[in-house]
Amino acid sequence: MKHAALCSRIGYDFVQPQLLQRALTHRSYSPANNERLEFLGDSVLNCAVARHLYDDYPDLPEGDLSRLRSNLVNQQTLFTLAQQLNLGELLLLGEGERKSAGHRRPSILADAMEALFGAVFLDGGFEAARRVVLGLYVPFIAQADVQTLGKDAKTLLQEYLQGRKLALPKYSVLTTEGEAHAQLFRVGCEIAQLKLTTCGEGSSRRTAEQVAAEAAYRQLTESKHD
Fold first, then answer.
1. Any idea which residues carry the catalytic annotation?
2. N or C: which end of the chain has fewer CB within 10 A?
C-alpha cells in the first residue's frame, strides 16, 4: 500500500511490484539495488524526451534540439520531479545514508527517478515508460524557451534584473547538512527591491544557488512584476 500513492501519481500500476521495490533501493541498503535500472532508465528518458522534442519542434536544428534536451534531462529536473512525487520517503537507504539525509540528496533522488523509468520500461514496455516520462516532463517542456538555450538560471535571472535596472540578487547559505563527502546545501536567493526570497537545495553551493535562482526567475516571469 505504501507504493500505491506513487503509482497513482505517475499513472502506472506495476504487474511486477518487485521492480518498483528495486528502483527504490539504494546501493547502501542492498546489493540488489537500483543502479542497473538507473542505467536503463537514463536511456529510456532520453529517447522519450528526444522523440517528443523532435515531433514538437519540427523546425529546430539538431544542435538546438540537443541543448533543449540537455536543459530538460538533467539532475536538477529529476530531483525536482522526485520531490514532487515524495520519492525520498519511499527510498530504502543504508543507515549511513539515512543519517546523512540521503533521502533529500539530489543525486540519490535523481538516480531513483531514472531507475523508476527503467522499472516501468521492464514491466510494461517502452510505450508505458514513454507515457510516464511525458506525463511528468510535459510541464517542464511547455515552459522551455528556445531563446534561453545554453544559459543557466543565475545568468537568466541576472539578465532579467539588469534589463529592468534592478539590483542583482544576493545568495546566502542557510544550512549545510551531512558529512563532508556528501553534504546537502540549502541556499537563499534574495531580491530585496522586489521583496522576493527563494530557496534551493543541492549537493554543492553552486548547484543550490542555481536551484534558488531558477525558482526566482520562474516566479518573476510568471508574475506581473513587469
1. 42, 114
2. N
